[in-house]
Design goal:
heterodimer; A: about 260 residues; alpha/beta; Rossmann fold; six-stranded mixed β-sheet; four-stranded antiparallel β-sheet; 10 strands; about 35% helix; globular; B: about 280 residues; mainly alpha; MetI-like fold; 12 helices; about 80% helix
Chain lengths: ~260, ~280
């Protein structure tokens, strides 16, 4: 299988105003994500998961190392990647439809083709009929669906998801996890998913990468070989619990419980 | 009776507003015409001059109304004053917007410029600009240009400060979003900066209108013979209190109308906002 994303010796340090010295946030991260793979990164609070995602997106420049997407070096944000942000980050003055169109607009795609694509993905995330609603009129779960549609409509090679369900209540979160898997299966996208929830990572992923505490390093990569398609019942399977225990152990031996 | 109560219930806000306004006007008319003094005299037997106010100190509402009718529809003198003041205000308003909004937004978007502008803006907002009027008169005289300058100066400050604050309070997450989608500087400005700033810009504009109305009166203290401010100042000096009130009311009505206009624009711009208590 072809490699979609490769991180080579990524390190990131930045000046720390408190101590005056340099703070190492990411240390020598090497990882690969294959085409069509769903990979999650979990790790303790402040391990630099989100920072790493920003480096992959090209919003933050690494101090050392390279990010390659389809063999091309990433220097800035590009059309081949799209981010689903942690807080939905919807433009409050735009309707659902126009929020989904936003990325296309930035890329210079407008008119009929853009509208048709937006309509398709609004439908895919189950928001048909809500096109003209404003974000304040939507529940947290619906806002995250818009967030997801806004990324999918860009037809990216790599979907970067930054704890997208963290702010949702438990029931909505589980529902969204199941729906995300369906959408992922239908679209065949490569996904890099950041989360602090171990069960979420296992349920969604082909592989869970465990980061160590600051500075962020790849501690271990755990293959999740559970059958697909998966349903929420899987979370009560003994094999699921075994994986949970294992990842819990990896995170705990590294300095405390996972984030939050 | 029940119909009357129902009518009141349906228009409670309007009814209570009209009631308080009427009571206020009746009390005022009574002071000017000596109703309260007469009534008290009948009760107490003493003359109460304190409650009888001479028209050179305070005109009665009725007298103000008839004077207004005279000035607007008989002699037509008022239109001349209103026309010139409206012209001064409009030019100053446009100048303050054209200078203040871009300058404030640009200063607020650039971190270094923002640091540099901060003490100046703080000083500018703390300073009573009317205190500069003698200087303006010294530099520019008392003609229309000087008046426009004074009005514009007064209007500029809230517009500038609000635009600056607006550009500094943009949600960083939205800026990150735009950058992640590869938006150009121009796209960022149009899609993020401007819409985020709009509520601040409109609030600043509404505030500026009120200050511009002050500018009309103080800017026209000196010189020439035309303008609502001139008319107020001169009538006051000649104890023509009814004319003073006609001028003041003209400004009040103009200011309210302009503020209402901006409020309507605000409402139209804010369909995306959660309805607040105001509309509830």
């Amino acid at each position: 299988m072809t490699v979609k994303l490769e991180a080579r010796n990524i390190s990131l340090s930045y000046g720390d105003p408190a101590s005056g010295g340099n703070l190492l946030a990411l240390s020598d991260i090497n990882l690969q994500v294959r085409e069509g793979e769903f990979v999650s990164i979990v790790g303790p609070s402040g391990c630099g998961k989100t920072t790493f995602l920003s480096v992959v997106d090209g919003l933050i420049r690494a101090s050392a190392g390279q990010i390659l997407v389809d063999g091309h070096v990433v220097t800035k944000p590009g059309r081949d990647r799209a981010v689903v942000f942690q807080d939905a980050s919807l433009l409050p003055w735009r309707s659902v439809r126009r929020n989904v169109l936003y990325g296309l607009e930035c890329a210079g795609i407008t008119g009929r083709p853009a509208e048709e694509r937006a309509a398709h993905f609004i439908d895919m995330v189950g928001l048909r009929g809500f096109e003209e609603r404003y974000p304040y009129q939507l529940s947290g779960g619906m806002q995250q669906r818009v967030n997801l549609a806004r990324a999918l409509v860009m037809d990216p090679e790599l979907l970067l998801m930054d704890e997208p369900f963290a702010a949702l209540d438990a029931q909505t979160r589980e529902m969204m996890q199941e729906e995300l898997l369906q959408i992922w299966r239908a679209s065949g996208k490569t996904v890099l998913f950041i989360t602090h929830q171990i069960d979420e990572a296992i349920f969604l992923s082909d592989r869970v990468i465990v980061f160590s505490a600051r500075p962020g390093r790849v501690k271990e990569s755990v293959d999740i070989t559970l059958d697909r398609p998966r349903s929420l019942k899987l979370k009560r399977d003994p094999r699921f619990h075994a994986l949970e225990d294992r990842i819990w152990g990896l995170i705990q031996e590294d300095g405390g419980p996972p984030a939050r | 009776m029940t119909a009357l109560i129902r009518l009141y219930r349906g228009h409670e806000r309007l009814a209570l507003g009209l009631l308080s306004m009427s009571l206020f006007l009746i009390a005022w008319q009574g002071l000017a015409d000596g109703w309260w003094a007469d009534a008290l005299q009948r009760v107490s037997g003493q003359s109460v001059t304190l409650l009888r106010i001479k028209p050179i100190f305070l005109a009665s509402p009725w007298r103000i109304a008839t004077t207004a009718w005279q000035l607007y529809f008989v002699t037509g003198e008022m239109w001349r004053h209103l026309g010139l003041s409206a012209f001064e205000f409009s030019v100053a308003f446009v100048a303050a917007l054209v200078v203040g909004m871009p300058a404030g937004l640009i200063a607020g978007r650039n971190r270094l410029l923002s640091y540099a502008a901060d003490p100046l803006l703080t000083a500018l907002s703390a300073m009573p600009q009317v205190a500069l009027i003698p200087l303006v008169v010294l530099w520019m005289g008392t003609d229309v240009t000087a008046r426009i300058f004074i009005i514009a100066l007064l209007m500029l400050v809230p517009i500038l400060i609000n635009a600056h604050a607006a550009a500094r309070t943009i949600d960083p997450r939205l800026l990150k979003l735009a950058r992640s989608f590869g938006a150009s500087e121009r796209q960022v400005f149009r899609s993020i900066v401007l819409p985020s700033a709009t509520p601040y810009l409109l609030a600043g504009t509404r505030f500026a209108i009120g200050r511009g109305m002050i500018g009309i009166v103080v800017g026209e203290i000196y010189g020439s013979s035309t303008g609502v401010g001139v008319m107020i100042n001169q009538s006051g000096a000649q104890f023509q209190t009814a004319r003073v009130f006609v001028g003041v009311l003209t400004i009040v009505v103009a200011g309210m109308a302009l503020s209402e206009l901006v409020r309507r624009i605000e409402k139209r711009c804010h369909v995306w906002r959660q309805p607040s208590l105001e509309q509830a």
